[in-house]
Amino acid sequence: MSTSPPVGPSNPRIKSALRLRERKERDASGLTLVDGARELRRALEAGAEVVEAFVCETLLAGEDARVALDALGAGDVPTTTTTEAGLAKLAFGDRAEGLVAVVRAPSLGLTDLRLSVDPLILVIESVEKPGNIGAVLRSADGAGVDAVIAASPRTDLANPNVVRASAGTFFTVPMAAAASQEVLAWLRDRRIRVLAARVEGGSAYTDADLTGPLAIVVGAESEGLTDTWIGPEIEAIHLPMLGIADSLNVSVSAAVLAYEARRQRGGHTTGAD
Amino acid sequence: MSTSPPVGPSNPRIKSALRLRERKERDASGLTLVDGARELRRALEAGAEVVEAFVCETLLAGEDARVALDALGAGDVPTTTTTEAGLAKLAFGDRAEGLVAVVRAPSLGLTDLRLSVDPLILVIESVEKPGNIGAVLRSADGAGVDAVIAASPRTDLANPNVVRASAGTFFTVPMAAAASQEVLAWLRDRRIRVLAARVEGGSAYTDADLTGPLAIVVGAESEGLTDTWIGPEIEAIHLPMLGIADSLNVSVSAAVLAYEARRQRGGHTTGAD
Predict the structure, then answer these.
(1) Does residue B112 contact residue B186 with C-beta atoms inside 8 Å?
(2) Mind giving me the DSSP string for A173-231?
């Protein structure tokens, strides 16, 4: 670590990193911000390219921070030590953990996805809130989903709040983003069966066959799925809503559906994925 | 509706209602704030006592707002029309829907809970974030859970952000709050079987018998359950985590477990609950 005195909010490196809060800067650079010790540790362990880091030594605490700092040192990542005000300028989470880093976002091309022989894919359509996308990634990680595909998303997946809400799974769950029509064509080409989760209609999800190569498509909360997901080869399923509300949070629906698929596939093991 | 001119942020009624953002004021009055057209509509439809309402006519839009306004009028609820700045002072959600109301919070005594003959109960222990409690209520509503019990909660359930995150199910899902030991004693008295969801150990939840009178206990994300939930009569279960993360969001775990219980109970119907 550097022995220069900690820098404050007006430091040019901080100002430069801060521009990654804007989508156009993220799109142009392919970079994003990671805030938090656990998130940065997971990024490093997943082999993400950490371009530079900002560390506030008086805020550092815990095992995750120690492991992340060691990995930054071992990887010769350029690191700027900051004052608490300097770090606060960059941080956006609700915890102050003394670590924010500039990291290369994963590739999001459909053609880059590597699937198992019997893939389980979650497709989320038109989702707008970064927090919901991050929460879906976290649920998908838990359920051992092969990939999460954002169909016609209304935000960029590299939004720092996606990373934050994903609890670091942003760097490990394979992801792609493309227009809904392209996603459907890609699934058809690979003979992956498509099940569209709708508020009403179709079978209850527990009556549907969720084994074999499968993509489950869930929509944004307010509107449900577009007509792209209606067709002779597409089976509609629904998640029974037994109370007064008409939908679940998208990360909750995704988890219930994916865990049921895992149950039907026989045993909660990751297999050869 | 009143014909007096709309009032601004310094209006004494607004200032008085604003005090309900503080827990001690909510505890003393038994009242809370409801922000949003859908939330207020659901409160009214559930028969909650709406003490007074604040309406900004230039922000009102949609079916939920219209239904809520009609019900306020029919119920002779004292209503103050506000300027946009007046309403903004009171509102706390991320949407501005022109409606904020002061509403009596439901009773939270264990003895007030009415259960079906074959109850499914979710117990959430030590949960701190109001948004997580609201999200659990929404999941519980969807899965047709009989009641949600907050064991040794770290926030008050009447926090306006609980109401907001619950998508209005705060007013319809039966709730109680008590110390963990009291909750366990209450469950034992009623011969309700207790299953404690832990990160590791016990059976996979899909191998456990989730039929019959049952309480499923889930903990706060950071720490898991306290030792109250270890004992000869308490069965440990776990939700397999197939990725890198060590836990799911508590509302996601609650939904996966409750929907699996519904599946095992045979058919996704609310029955005679």
Answers:
(1) no
(2) S-EEEE-HHHHHHHHHHTT-EEEEEESSSSEETTTS---SSEEEEEE-TTT---GGG-S
End-to-end CA separation in angstroms for chain B: 38
User: Which DSSP state fits B119?
Assistant: -
Residues of chain A contacting residue B260, judged by C-beta atoms under 8 Å apart: 259-260, 263
Note the ipTM here.
0.91
Name which CATH class applies to B110-264: alpha beta
DSSP code string of B20-47 = GGSHHHHHHH-EEEEESHHHHHHHHHTT
> Token pair 């899902």 is at which residue?
B173
Confidence of residue A220 (pLDDT cuts 50, 70, 90): confident
Q: Which two tokens stand for residue B133?
A: 């409690």
Nearest-Cα distance to chain B for A52, in Å, is 24
What tens digit of pLDDT does each residue of B127-146 get? 999 999 999 999 999 999 99
If residue B54 lies in a helix (H) or strand (E), which one and from where to where?
A: strand B50-55
Q: For chain B, what is the mean pLDDT? A: 92
Of the candidates B67, B176, B171, B57, the residue with the CA atom closest to the CA atom of residue B112: B176
The CA distance from A12 to the nearest CA of chain B, in Å, is 32
Please state the pTM of the whole predicted model: 0.92
Query: B12-104 falls under which CATH superfamily?
Result: Ribosomal protein L30/S12 (3.30.1330.30)
Task: Please give, rounded to a whole number of angstroms, the shortest distance from the CA of B45 to a CA of chain A.
Answer: 10
Contact B239 A251 (CB under 8 A): no
Beta strands in B117-262 (DSSP E): 120-125, 147-151, 175-178, 193-198, 203-204, 214-219, 234-238
**Distance, CA of B255 to chain centre:** 14
* CB < 8 Å to A260, chain B: 259-260, 263
Closest alpha carbon to A78 in A58, A106, A49 = A49
In a mutagenesis test of the B interface, which of A259, A263, A264, A265 is the best target, namely the one with the most B β-carbons within 10 Å?
A259
| Residue B182 and residue B214 in contact, taking contact as beta carbons nearer than 8 Å | no
pLDDT digits (tens, 9 = 90+) for A70-94: 999 998 999 999 999 999 999 886 6
Alpha-carbon gap, residue A218 to A195, rounded angstroms: 9
For chain B, give me the number of helices (H) and strands (E)? 9, 11
Among residues A83, A86, A95, the alpha carbon closest in space to that of A40 is found at A95
Can you tell me whether residue A112 is helix, strand or coil? Answer: helix
Which amino acid is located at A136 in the chain?
V
Q: Would you kindly state where each structural domain of chain A is located, as residue ranges? A: 12-104, 110-264
Query: Where in B71-170 does DSSP place strands (E)?
Result: 79-81, 99-104, 120-125, 147-151
Pseudo-torsion of CA A89, A94, A98, A102, nearest 10°? -60
Distant-in-sequence, close-in-space partners of B29: CB < 8 Å, separation ≥ 6: B20
Per-residue pLDDT of B205-231, as tens digits, reads 999 999 999 999 999 766 789 999 999
**Residue in A100, A114, A118, A81 with CA at minimum distance from that of residue A36:** A100
